[in-house]
Each structure stands twice: as structure tokens, then as C-alpha cells.
């Protein structure tokens, strides 16, 4: 039975121009594919759904990928709870650009780790692929986050990308709360606790 408590999640879709950020977002919200490319400045979409038996209100910010709008990034990076770093598997430059986005997010948040997911879009264009799945997985591993390939056109893994982002936010917040509580209560780190604490090192360090 789904929880009736409505939790809002501020998700931000970032990436270079033309990688399919708007197409992914509109496919999630409206279940159709936008074939024409119309560069976005900034659009917000909302959708209520149930993820793992918990009601969630997704507040999705679709951002500008063009460099001329780079000055707007810091503002949305401050307010976002989770970030989908999107590149096109047919565009190597867009793949390299997500490095910059990840670094900017951590800088603005002043943390060593924050909920993100790497999204390789346009996986339906296999014949035009220039970024391998293994490269995408390796990049996500270096960020310490999940990786998923999607196709907005064919609606492949679209819901999964956004839902996994919500799951990552929930996990992050739960671990953060546990660490804060343990710190306040002054619990010692016994041997059984060390393994868990080691896996949460990035989150713990992000407390500053």
C-alpha cells in the first residue's frame, strides 16, 4: 500500500546542448517524443507518481545546455536535490562536458558527494554511437554514482532514470540522517560499524 505522504523531489536535468534533456523530461511527464530541437532556457515540469510504494511529487527542472546560459547554472545547482547528468552516446563532446557539470555541482554544494546519475541518451542510435557503454559505466563509477542508458524517442529507461534518481536522494538523505544522529549520540565506531562507515565515507566527509 502506497504511503499518502507527498514528498517533493527537486530534480535537475543537466548536460550539453542537443543531448535530449527536454525530450527525456517531456517523455516522462507527457509520454510523447518531441522531434524538433528547440533550445531550452529553463523549464519546470511536475509529476506525481509512486516509487517503491511511496508517493512522490517530481519537480523537474530542464536546464539550458548552451554555454551562453552558463551563468544560470549556479542558481539551479544550489536548489537541486538530485542531478541527472545527460550526454548523447552519439556526441563525445557532450560526454566530456558532464565532467564539468559534476565538478560544478560539488563546488556549489560544497560537498565531496551529492546525488547524481549519469545518463547516456539516444541509445536507439546504436549505429551512430561514439561513446561506449563501458565508458559511460566507468565515468559513473569515477563519480560514485549509477549509470543508465536511455532513449527518449523509444521511451527506453526514461522512467527508470528519474525514479533511480529519487531512490538515490532517499538513500543519501537516510544515510546522512543516520550519520548525524550517530555523531550527536556519540556512538563509538565498533568493528561491525566500520564497514558501513567506510562505505559512507564520502557522505560523512560532505558534512564538512
Describe this structure in words.
The protein has one domain (3-171): Rossmann fold. Helix content is 42%, strand content 24%. It has helices spanning 21-30, 73-79, 92-109, 133-143, 158-185, 191-199, 201-205; strands spanning 3-15, 42-51, 54-63, 82-88, 116-121, 146-149. Strands 2-3-1-4-5-6 form a six-stranded mixed beta sheet, with helices on both faces.
CATH-assigned fold name: Rossmann fold
The total number of structural domains is 1
- Can you say what the CATH homologous superfamily is? P-loop containing nucleotide triphosphate hydrolases
What is the residue-averaged pLDDT?
Answer: 86
**Unreliable sequence segments:** 190-197
Overall strand count: 6
Rg value: 18 Å
* Total of DSSP H or I helical runs spanning 4+ residues: 7
Task: List SSEs in N-to-C order.
Answer: EHEEHEHEHEHHH
Gap between N and C termini, in Å? Answer: 38 Å
Strand order, sheet with most strands: 2-3-1-4-5-6
CATH architecture assignment name: 3-Layer(aba) Sandwich
Helix proportion range:
40-55%
Report the major sheet.
6 strands, mixed
Give the class-level CATH name: Alpha Beta
Structural class: alpha/beta
Overall morphology: globular
Protein name: Ras-like protein
Membrane topology: Lipid-anchor
Pfam families: Ras
Region (Disordered): 189-208
